[in-house]
Write the structure tokens for this entry.
Amino acid sequence: MGRKGDEEADEDQREPIAARILARLMDEARRVGSGLFDLVLPPVCTACRKPVERAHALCGDCWSGLRQIERPYCERLGIPFGYDIGPGALSASAIADPPVFDRARAAVLYEGAACELVRALKYRDRTEAARLVGRMTARAGREILGDADLLVPMPLHRNRLWVRTFNQAALMAFEIGRATGVPVDTAALMRIRATRPQVGLAEAERQANVRGAFRVPASRKASVAGRRVVLVDDVLTTGATASAATRALKRAGAIRVDVLTFARVAPGGPLAI
């Protein structure tokens, strides 16, 4: 994402604590509130905060700014093609360097309003964004969710979770589980090593950064072994983190690991968060 993106992320994380708490309380109140509450605090666009007709939705401008990923795309990596080259087509990347995970799917490309949604959820405590993001991700992942046994959110290291207070991937997974009926296990995968943020790292650096960072606890191996697992995260960039997590799940006996994210970076695009 580059230096400018790094500075934006740092600035987001330095928002005053009081403002973050107030925003969280308002979002939670709006989540459980009635129509009367909406008269006092009318619903706003989940991305840009402009007024909209209903909660957990986007305004017309933000919606039109999303580049949704639809077929034709690479059956392994979910990379969209410019034209249809036939069923079961694979991208050059999938052929030259097959991924550790079985399939990857994402709802949108990581640009425009999609970036704003991810940043709002991840850095600005806008947890209400998980509802919209989760619903869109569930629709994009219908194919791999159809016979999935378990949803596993990408874990945060305990130190980062303590600072952030929530795991955005877990919030997404619960929304996807609610929409599909697939159970969620937030304890099936642990991040056992505190890694550097992936922001600004090249692909090789990202791979080295997360190598050996994940483990399935002994107490959860029975829930993973023999299962078809869907690993849930917010953004797929190079696939380094997803690959490291997949290796841990497959060592624990998962028979298939698919990756489902809200957004993915376009081939050749700038590396994301």
User: Anything to note?
Assistant: DSSP finds 13 helices and six strands in the chain. Residues 1-16, 33-37 have pLDDT under 50 and may be disordered. The beta strands are 103-109, 150-153, 190-191, 214-215, 228-236, 256-264. Residues 17-32 form the longest helix (16 residues).
